[in-house]
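Structure request: 7-carboxy-7-deazaguanine synthase, Luteimonas chenhongjianii.
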Amino acid sequence: MTAIASDAVAASAADRLKLTEIFLSLQGEARDAGWPTVFVRLTGCPLRCSYCDTAYAFHGGDWWTVDAILAEVASHGVRHVCVTGGEPLAQKRCIGLLRRLCDAGYQVSLETSGALDIGAVDPRVSRVLDIKTPASGEAHRNRWENLALLTAHDQIKFVVCSRADYEWSRDIVLTKGLQHRCDVLFSPSKGEITGRELADWIVADRLPVKFQMQLHKLLWDDEPGR
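Returned structure:
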């Protein structure tokens, strides 16, 4: 192999990410809920949350260049793009993908577990940061340093599995003043508590958070690619 060909192969490898799927659907949660959105789901995740609904993204997947990802995104003809996983930041080249999507004029969100450093993410991206509750089994992985990096453009999400989970989450919101930093979202964990229970607790406490149900679960019941 010539030096030029070798450099070309190395450049191509450096521009690739492993993807589980790219698909068009409705955004089911967070600030952009209801908008037609292209989802770019990266493969792999270092966490194993008890309520995970995308375990199929832990392994497998196919290698895509960033140019191929952008071409596929463009083919769907919508302006909202959500980069998700798995845990997308587990692949370091995700940072470059996010930047390229922003440069292309898309309204970009990133769904991240909150266990990895978000500091290098392009500030044009709305970072939807999970805070893992005790019932998730991964609360010890929360990277609390990320909270200081959040702006009003970002969002914080709690998936609540029980009354104890709710009280823990409520106390985190209030003691850390998260409602003053960005939108805070509470979701019920499917099969653990009902939406009505969580809604009643939020109302009773006048908690300064947004209640949300995941639209994609209501419409398509966790069907992959929807």
